[in-house]
Amino acid sequence: MFTYSSFEIAGAFALLRPILYTLLVANVLLFILNIVPRLKAKYLNSFIVLGASFLKVVIALQVVFFGAVVADELNLAGDTVGMILLMLIVGISALNILIYLISSKDT
User: Fold this and answer.
1) Which of 52, 76, 93, 106 can bridge 13 by disulfide, Cβ–Cβ 3.0-4.6 Å?
2) Global pTM value
3) Whose CA is closest to 12, among 87, 76, 64, 88?
4) Range of the domain at 104
């Protein structure tokens, strides 16, 4: 039905999934920087951790919301994979903030 074959996968709008995967990878990299003490001392401060985590959550929320709007306009189903990725991004962002605040309180 569409000229671009990967607009939909199994009836669900999936064009915006790569953005969510990229945000998830960036969140995991921030998590790794956060748990390795030498990298944390060299590269991270509270502004970076809080700002990056908040920004990633806001971008992911907007991507999922506008993906749902586009899916509704194209009469496609919602993207459950996108929602799971959103929950992972929110969870890892919260974990990044908690780990940073708890470990910075100890030092």
Assistant:
1) 76
2) 0.89
3) 76
4) 46-107
